[in-house]
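hey can u run this one w/ heme C bound, need the structure tokens asap thx
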Amino acid sequence: MQAKRTLILLAALATISLATAIFIFGPRSADRWTEAEVAMLRTLWLGSLPPLPPDPSNRYADDPRAIALGERLFFDARFSNNGRVACGTCHLPELGFQDGLPLAQGIGTTDRRTMPIAGMAYSPWLFWDGRKDSLWAQALGPLENPVEHGGTRAQYAHLIAAHYRSEYEALFGPLPDLSGVPASAGPAADPAARAAWDAMTPAAQEAVTRIYVNMGKAIAAFERTIMPGPSRFDAYVQALLEGDTRTMRASLTADEVAGLRLFIDRANCIQCHNGPLLTDNDFHNTAVPDAPGLPQDTGRAAGAQLVLADEFNCLSPYSDAAPQQCAELRFILSEGEELLRAFKPPSLRNVAERPPYMHAGQFATLQEVIMHYHLAPPAPAGHSQLEPLHLSPRERAQLLAFLQALSEVSD
Ligand code: HEC
Ligand code: HEC
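ok here u go:
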């Protein structure tokens, strides 16, 4: 009798532990994906990132000496009006190359929020409005912008000659004689620097601008090495592709998986946030409100005209590309209602680590961002591409949980 009872007890225990094991290690219903969904998830996985595209406009783009020089220039605050602003002042590595501010602070305050830069070597257009078409041309913007670095290209040429002569010459050849070049002069700065620039000979201007352009090409080479790292979402997709249900459960909670399902399905976030960087690098009007106190920002409508007119674009004499290699610029969509207040979607990788959000920090939290997509208000100008989402509070929380799972895991 005693033995029989023990046997029954043991059998019951075994059944319970088997059920527990299936519950812990077996497939969850949340993890069932159709073949088409698996194919979609694979496209969002960091492992699907193709090799870095070449940049024919920058012949130093992958030169290790340019990368090393560019890294030092990126963090060198001498390249500014007050000796206190470097690229790294606003693009802090520990904050995902961002600064956590609604509007960036350099010499003054900018009209827009600092963008994250990891993986931006994949983007054909740079800035919220895409007014630059290469990383090197982009780098030359803030250096002369009065509210960012606020310096001049003649000042920078002298600094290169004084502090980086051997590194520079090893890459780009001998520096010209700069003894006749004023200490500060440039086409885009204050009236005194502008007058000094206009007084220079075209040959001297050209020599200074070449040095300036080469600085940009070295900084761009460094930026090409800045890549996002894998997140729990990537571990989940990898496990899904390998049929490893245990790692799938360990990587994302059921709520995070539900948020992922909304992201690719009913909430349609992948319309614009797609590919392994979770951005299509194109321009969209998503009815983000104006930032109080700032002039109306027309976004891509102005940006498309600016890149066509840019002194340093792919078709310019400073580009190393042949004209037929500048397809993006040559076939640019430069006019149309859809460009008004259209902005570039930032990569959503590490997004939870860098509030506030949008081009002028209009939303303080990811909850506010999700509420915006949920309600889809009319655009302040132009036409919004968004439709109301009708998500329940629980679904909004799940979407938030998923966005938080896109942060890089340090191991
Ligand atoms: C004062 C802060 C500040 C400084 C200094 C600064 N940036 Fe930025 N950065 C910004 C802001 C703000 C934007 C977005 C501006 C816009 O769209 O008009 C931006 C955008 C960018 C982008 C575009 C990313 C994308 O996805 O399109 C890159 C790349 C970048 N910066 C690199 C640099 C480099 C290189 C330097 C140094 C030469 C630099 N930044 C200096 C604030 C700064
Ligand atoms: C029609 C295109 C489009 C769709 C659909 C879309 N986004 Fe965006 N997203 C953008 C654009 C464009 C921006 C930048 C807008 C701006 O700053 O004005 C952005 C910005 C964001 C940001 C802020 C990133 C940052 O660093 O500032 C988050 C978070 C975000 N989107 C999440 C989502 C989620 C979640 C969904 C689905 C509910 C979604 N997006 C759907 C285009 C889109």
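Residues 267-269, 271-273, 284, 286, 288, 343, 345-346, 348, 351, 357-359, 366, 369, 373, 385, 399 surround heme C (ligand 2) (CB under 6 Å). anyway lmk if its weird
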